[in-house]
Amino acid sequence: MSQVSGDYRRGTTTPIIDMKPIEFWAANKENVQPKQHRRRLPSETEISVENFQRDLYEEAPSSEPCLTDEEKLAKYQLGQIHIGLQYDVSTRVLVVKVIEAKDLPPPYCLDENKQDMAHSNPYCKVCLLPDQKNSQQTSVQRKTQNPSWSEYFMFEMPYSEVQMRTLEILIKDFDKYSRHCVIGQVYLPLSNINLIKGGHMWKALSPSTKERQDLGEILLSLNYLPGAGRLNIDVIKAKQLLQTDMIGGSDPFVKVTMVHFEKPIKTKKTSCKKNTIDPVFNESISFNVTPQQLENTSIVVSVWDYNTKSKDDFVGRIVIGKYGTGPHEFTHWNRMLNSQRSAVAQWHSLRSRQECDQVSPASIAVP
User: Fold this and answer.
1) Contact 220, 324 (CB under 8 A)
2) Other C-beta atoms lying within 10 Å of the C-beta of residue 208
3) Same domain, 279 and 311
4) Helices (H) and strands (E) in the chain, counts
5) Dist. CA 350–CA 141, nearest whole Å
6) Nearest Cα to Cα of residue 252 among 281, 284, 214
7) How many CB atoms lie within 10 A of CB 15?
8) Cα gap 107→255, rounded to integer Å
9) CATH of the domain at 312
10) What DSSP string describes 75-110?
């Protein structure tokens, strides 16, 4: 990596774009994260119209494009972030380097009894819009308004596609009590940047355009065998779970509870996956339930983070069945009922306990 020019010193108030070529490929200088494995194509059972999120395919929101970085710094006073970009034609990989940030605002609107009000615990989420689901994130830097990461993120795609994407970086404050509020964001269209030449730049942060409660997603497969009176729930995997441990990542596991009307009948759980927010379980859980009972049955799926010395942390949940928590959950259940003896898989976005309790009596019944 080429040396950062003197314009990037901390005292500088004007963000300077330095598009000098940078060397991302010097493995003897810095460790580069391995390229992500190519995702397998989903089966037909995993694809349905209701799974597509319309907002992901709309044009990325613009954060007051008329404002320069200098004006954003003066108006919002949210600090700025130092990033590097380069596209390697031979491997068809865009490399994003999150280097550092400076002058982040101190925490606000948080419970001073639960959080150090003088310092943030910042980390970044990086994605290429409109694909928000395959975001990646940096480590958490403790108690600092001037974090340093120097972490690489790889995105494999053709150059023509990269030019149509917008780089989104969210800087979030790790705090399990506030569910990780957004400190600031950067939207950077890649169409006008010489990515093959590569370079690094400082970008001013803007306020978040929408408060997304990113608790993560879970892939479940449902299968009901009426002859055997058995309901099978395959917990396949989860991704981008909300991290509840600042150091060492998360140790997620899943609890699945069968509820008849509003009475919990039985709870089973998966194994615990260590140090990951993208766990792969591939575990099957079965319940005995007659066709008559199935009409009044709900399945509460809760994701937890295992702790050895304290109470496990709740991450998120969904409810499928009679008292489902939303249209996607009802759709998945109905697809299962219409495809008995055949497994039906679908991704679900996890919800907070409060959100689930507001719409599902089954969720209230499960602690």
Assistant:
1) no
2) 17
3) yes
4) 6, 17
5) 26
6) 281
7) 19
8) 33
9) 2.60.40.150
10) HH---EEEEEEEEETTTTEEEEEEEEEE-PPPP-SS
Structure tokens at 47: 């694809």
Identify whether residues 82 and 142 lie together within a single domain: yes
**E strands in the chain:** 17-18, 80-88, 93-102, 122-129, 131-137, 148-156, 166-173, 182-189, 199-204, 217-225, 230-239, 252-260, 263-269, 280-288, 297-305, 313-321, 344-349
Is 210 part of any domain?
A: no
Structure tokens, 206: 């803007």
- 15 and 161 inside one domain: yes
Are 76 and 183 in contact by the 8 Å Cβ rule? The answer is no
Cβ atoms 341, 279 nearer than 8 A: no
Nearest alpha-carbon partner for 219 in 47, 340, 49: 47
Which residue's entry shows tokens 């608790």?
A: 215
Query: Domain limits at 248?
Result: 217-365
SS3 321: strand
125 shares a domain with 61: yes
Cβ-based neighbour number of residue 185 at 10 Å: 23
DSSP state of 132: E
pLDDT tens track, the chain, 367 positions: 443 333 333 434 444 444 444 444 433 333 434 444 444 444 444 434 344 444 444 444 444 457 898 988 888 889 999 999 999 999 999 999 999 999 998 875 444 444 456 788 899 999 998 887 788 989 989 889 999 999 999 999 999 999 999 999 999 888 765 567 888 999 999 998 999 999 999 999 998 765 556 788 999 999 999 999 999 999 999 988 888 776 666 899 999 999 999 999 999 999 999 989 899 999 999 999 999 999 999 999 999 999 888 889 899 999 999 999 988 899 999 999 998 788 999 999 899 898 899 899 999 999 9
